[in-house]
Amino acid sequence: MAIYRQLMLCSRIRALRVAAQLTQSDVAERLGVSQAAYSRLEKGEVEISVGKLFELCAIYGVTPVYVLEGI
User: Fold this and answer.
1) Residues near 65 by Cβ (< 8 Å), separated by ≥ 6?
2) Residue 28, domain extent
3) Cα–Cα distance between 2 and 38 in angstroms, integer?
4) Within 13 A of 68's CA, how many CA atoms are on the CB side?
5) Which has the least CB within 10 A, 14, 44, 53, 69?
């Protein structure tokens, strides 16, 4: 079940990025990480930290509740 939740979170984060018309490089730069590190996050290869989740929410103008709802 944890893997399913991780994949759902990654899918939602990717959808937010695409809806915002940003590239992985754009978001990675704003987060202060490499594009490769951000790509691994979107693929679910690494878990997202609470701090990075809050930073992503600020970038996309959404709340953490919105991102995590139903996951």
Assistant:
1) none
2) 2-68
3) 20
4) 9
5) 69
pLDDT digits (tens, 9 = 90+) for 16-51: 999 999 999 999 999 999 999 999 999 999 989 999
Assigned token pair, 16:
């937010």
The CATH number assigned to the domain holding 10 equals 1.10.260.40
Tokens at residue 59, please?
């970038």
Q: What's the confidence (pLDDT) of residue 51?
A: 95
Question: Any idea what DSSP says for residue 63?
Answer: -
Structural domains in the chain (count): 1
Asked if 55 and 16 touch (Cβ cutoff 8 Å), the reply is no
Give which of 1, 7, 12, 4 is closest to 46, Cα–Cα.
Answer: 7
The pTM of the full predicted model, rounded to 2 decimals, is 0.89
